Amino acid sequence: MAELGLNEHHQNEVINYMRFARSKRGLRLKTVDSCFQDLKESRLVDETFTIDEVSEVLSGLQAVVHSEVESELINTAYTNVLLLRQLFSQAEKWYLKLQTDISELENRELLEQVAEFEKAEFTSSTKKPIIDVIKPKLAPLNEGGTAELLNKEILRLQEENEKLKSRLKTIEMQAMNALGEKSELERALRDLRLDQGNQKVN
C-alpha cells in the first residue's frame, strides 16, 4: 500500500481532500465534455464546411474550453489557499510557524508517489470505502482543555522571562557601579602612594 509518511489521522485528512479534489475534477471534466457535445449538436449539422467555418467553430470551442479550464485552475488555487489558511491558523494558536517548500511541489518523484497513493486508495477493488462522517470544523485551539493550559504556561514563562531580564539588568547595573567604585579606589590608592613617595623624596 502506498504511504505518504504521515500518521493515520493526517493521512485520512489527505484522503478526504483528495476525494474532494477528485469530485471537483470530475465535475469540471463533465463541463468540458459538454462544451464539445453542445458544439456537435448546435454547429455540426451540415455535411460540409468551408475553411473559414471550421476555423470559426474551433475558435469558439477554444474560447469556451479556455474559459472553463482557467476558471478551474483559479478555483483550485484559491481552494489550496483556503486549505493552507486553515492549517496556518490552527498552528498559530499553538504559537507555531510553519514553513513550506514550493520547490517540492514540482518534485516528479513525490508527484508520482502521490499518484500511486491515489491509485491505491481510490481504485483498489479490495479497498473498503471510507464512510463519510460529519466532522466538526477546526475549533480554535485556545479555548479550553490542553490549549488553555498551554497558553497559561506560555504566559507564565513569558512573565518569568521578563522578571529574569529585569533582575539581570539590575545585577549588571550593580556590577557596573562596583567596577566604577573599584576604579575610583584604585586611583585614590595610586594617588596616595604617589604622594607618600613624593614626601619621602622631600
UniProtKB/TrEMBL annotation:
The keyword Isomerase does not apply. Transmembrane segments: none annotated. Residues 147-195 form a coiled coil. It comes from the Eukaryota. It is found in: Cytoplasm. One of its GO terms (biological process) is negative regulation of protein localization to cilium. PANTHER family: LEUCINE ZIPPER TRANSCRIPTION FACTOR LIKE (PTHR21635), LEUCINE ZIPPER TRANSCRIPTION FACTOR-LIKE PROTEIN 1 (PTHR21635:SF0). Regulates ciliary localization of the BBSome complex. Together with the BBSome complex, controls SMO ciliary trafficking and contributes to the sonic hedgehog (SHH) pathway regulation. May play a role in neurite outgrowth. May have tumor suppressor function. Self-associates. Interacts with BBS9; the interaction mediates the association of LZTL1 with the BBsome complex and regulates BBSome ciliary trafficking. This is Leucine zipper transcription factor-like protein 1. It comes from Myotis myotis (Greater mouse-eared bat).
